[in-house]
Amino acid sequence: MKNILALCCAALAFSSCETIVDVDVPPHTPRLALTYTLSNQPPAKFFEVRNLFVSTSQGVLELKDPVGRGDATVEIFNEAGQVVERFRSKGQPGFNSSTGQPDSLYGYYVPTRNFGGQPGSTYTLRASAPGVEAVEATLTLPARAVIETGSFVATNPVNPNSRGINGRFRCSILDNAATTDYYLVYARVLDRNGEYWGEVQYDYNSPSNGSNSDINLNRYQLSEARGLYSQYPFSDVGGNGQRLAVSNDVYLNGGGVLEPAFIEVTVSSITPDTYRFYQSLQRYYNTDGNPFAEPAPLFSNIRPGYGLFGGATDVTYRIPL
Predict the structure, then answer these.
(1) What is the pTM of this model?
(2) Measuring CA to CA, which of 36, 70, 160, 183 is 20 to 30 A from 279?
């Protein structure tokens, strides 16, 4: 009986320690949120990561899934104030395709002029939509990178009947000592007619990708053109004016009527804001919902909204297989 009384007293004691704290919900004004990357070349289909996406911000305690919106007006202006690019809402297959209505659910847009910017020129993006304040951002496209060499050495025989080829990919960039520069490096596989054959994927299973004497793989790593998560920007800090070597074990994954013939490398010189956005995005993803992780706010250059107006100046280099 004494034990039962003791347990009851303990339960009452703990229950009396419970405290209800009212937390003020921070005020939130919905604003436009968007991402778009302007390049010096017409928009390429395989660079999905650069496509325009428009949404509206929501409060930190809202539980609904964020969705895009298809009623925005987005334009890009040159230094003279002339419109050089306009966008239209993109219709997705299977969504209102029978009526031809634009897709307002996903919020993706396509350019109507296929404009490519000029390195050294300045451009301004302006966007507006009903019910929210208009936003804008400005950038100057950086100079072209200089690719010194590129190579690929297969570690298994190239078999036309095989969809996969393992090997070592290497690309060296001659960095400009006079400027602070930021880069992204992409690669894809083409057949002998120059048509797309497949992807060049970073080989996470390779032991040598975990330790390499030539590079710091946390910085000099291939990015993927189709996903925000797989963007690995790097700067020339600590190696300004030196040769920057991207050297990764990779996996060529694809297939087609013709056998693979080239690896096409794209080195993108990116704006400082593009670098900061992708760096912050990696930190955000790395928290993985951990409540004890340090806050990882996303960088934004869209004012007074959220997101990125990014810039990338591309150069390409083909490596014969």
Answers:
(1) 0.83
(2) 70
